[in-house]
Amino acid sequence: MYDKILVPLDCSDLAEIALPYAEELAGSMGSKITLIHVSESADDEHDHMHRAYIEKMVEITKKSIKKYFEKLSVKSIKVDSVFFAGHIAEQIVDYAEEQKIGLIVMATHGRSGIRRWILGSVAAKVVSATEQPMLLIRANDTSPKRRKKHLFKKALVPLDGSKESEAIIPYIGELASKLKAEVVLFHVIAPVQFFAGIPGEAANQTYGPDEIDKIVAKKKGSLDTLCAGLKDKGIKTSSKVVVGEPAKDIISKADEIHADVVAMSTHGHSGFDRWTLGSTADKVLHGGNTPIMLVRASIDTET
């Protein structure tokens, strides 16, 4: 599932914040790491400098990852690089698809100077177009202390009761098993039910206390079933159901439990089949304070 990890670099220090995460993942699972650099033009006068920089980062990554060899009982983990010219996001997406990359690990802030994930940034374009799982590392996660510690101790996994949202489970299950991380399954029930009313308009109905209690109990039972499956694999797992605003409460819960990553599917009961502005995943992506792993629900999952 994670045989190949792709890390886009743009020769900025901030883009490099993705590397410790890729190293820990590859070092725990024996994955190959590929560093990718895309120049906007084949005639880039700084191309030789960029190539020298990327090759230097390949050597640094090879040295950094050696500390994991004893754990894996291997002598090496392959680290290489590729270079392209053209539209940056398109080249990253195309290469990831062609090579069947298992995970794209990418910083959300590079040389462009963008300090948030906003429409138009390279990260946002890759997120919206790729079918490959992505791990996005926030630009403010740059402290030396953060780089030195174990980066994946606890994962928050938001679910919405749909099979589509559960697409994340096997992905986070494999990571948690290999990295000995704790998993917290989390479901937020919106207190208002939306349904079709007058054509062209949406009506809503607030759940009563008894209805809320029944829904909470049902959802908690579903989460506990998923917990049992993860626990059978030796993964420390717990679950929590709350009533509130999904995106807001996901962000708050991640902060509360000091989650190292929020892992979620990009398609749930909302009906979005893309990562679109307004979806819960998009709101958590833009408003959260934690690295986020996104997995697009497959067609098989949706049927």
Taken in chain order, the helices and strands follow as EHEHHEHEHEHEHEEEHEHEHEH
Cα-based radius of gyration, to the nearest Å? 20 Å
Describe the sheet with the most strands.
10 strands, mixed
What is the count of DSSP helices, taking H or I runs of 4+ residues? 11
Strand numbers in spatial order across the main sheet = 3-2-1-4-5-12-11-6-7-10
Mean pLDDT: 83
- Our estimate of the beta-strand percent is 15-25%
Q: Spans of 5+ residues with little confidence (pLDDT < 50)?
A: 110-120, 142-148, 268-278, 299-303
Backbone shape:
globular
Describe this structure in words.
It is a single chain. With 303 residues, the protein is an alpha/beta fold. The protein has two domains: 4-148, Rossmann fold; 154-302, HUPs (Rossmann fold), CATH 3.40.50.620. Helix content is 38%, strand content 23%. The strands form two sheets. The chain has a ten-stranded mixed sheet, with helices on both faces. A two-stranded antiparallel sheet has the order 8-9. Strand 8 (192-196) and strand 9 form a beta hairpin. Helix 4 packs parallel to helix 5 (122-129). Mean pLDDT is 83; it is low at 110-120, 142-148, 268-278 and 299-303.
State the gist of this model.
With 303 residues, the protein is of the alpha/beta class. The chain is built from eleven helices and twelve strands. The protein has two domains: 4-148, Rossmann fold (3-Layer(aba) Sandwich); 154-302, 3-Layer(aba) Sandwich (Rossmann fold).
